[in-house]
TrEMBL record:
Organism superkingdom: Bacteria
UniProt-recorded Gene Ontology molecular function terms: ATP binding
Name used for this protein in its record: ABC transporter ATP-binding protein
Pfam families: ABC_tran
Keywords: ATP-binding, Nucleotide-binding, Transport
Cell division found in the keyword field: no
Residues covered by the ABC transporter domain: 7-238
Source organism phylogeny: Bacteria, Bacillati, Bacillota, Bacilli, Bacillales
ATP-binding recorded as keyword: yes
Amino acid sequence: MQTGNMLELIDVSHVYVNDQGASLAVEQLNMAVRPGEFVALVGPSGCGKTTILSLLAGLLFPTRGSVLLAGVPVTGPSPQVGYMLQQDYLFPWRTIRDNAAIGLEIAGRRTKAALEAVDRLLEELGLSGAGGRYPHELSGGMRQRVALARTLATEPEVMLLDEPFSALDLHIKLQLEDLVQETLRRRGKTAVLVTHDLAEAAAMSDRVIVLGKQPGRILRELDIPEELRSASPTEARKQPGFQEVFEELWSELNRTEEGERHG
Ligand SMILES: Nc1ncnc2c1ncn2[C@@H]1O[C@H](COP(=O)(O)OP(=O)(O)OP(=O)(O)O)[C@@H](O)[C@H]1O
């Protein structure tokens, strides 16, 4: 059945099995993300956020249920899905331009036109002139911008963001939140952001999904009001309605952790 969703998890459970036994990480989860939507996932440590991203990326397969990308079951990693992580994983021996082009190279698409597009992307992300430099010459924020360029170069429809800003200083983090949101929005990308930072979730996304303690289940979905969504993350933080959204998320998470202490 075609639902028009870009991403869908239908009754998904995931069990990790290793020599210590089995661990239920996600239980009967139902979640859908529309094309162009920006969704944030928040929840206590170990509640299954990274597991959900790995299922969406086709790096893991559900023990039960189905994962769909544009209505089609996910059978493995897809060029339609890009991943951005806390660590940039740039290759130290490659120039910035060659790092940004590596996905194209792996896909056999390193043409002159594609490299020109990489240069334009680097320029758009404020890295013009850095193409011939090496990762160790760049700051953490610049390196994350290269990681963003590398992911966008292959033109995925979906971006999975696993705490990509958490290792950065506050000032750089805010700048990068603005840049990432604007860049993804302009291109109409669908995004799923995992973060521990409730303010980041509220400022960047269209909808926040709050997960309960392990095994991950959805406790609450909060639509972000239009006045926050239409602003950049930095501007959204200054809007009158921002504090209310933050407090709702905060109390939902505290309820979860209270339950964990007493449950
Ligand atoms: N490879 C694995 N083998 C066994 N158990 C795992 C494995 N990866 C994760 N888990 C367990 O599954 C549960 C969910 O892990 P996951 O990393 O998805 O949570 P998370 O919400 O992303 O955590 P955090 O916020 O701390 O990054 C945790 O209990 C974790 O210990």
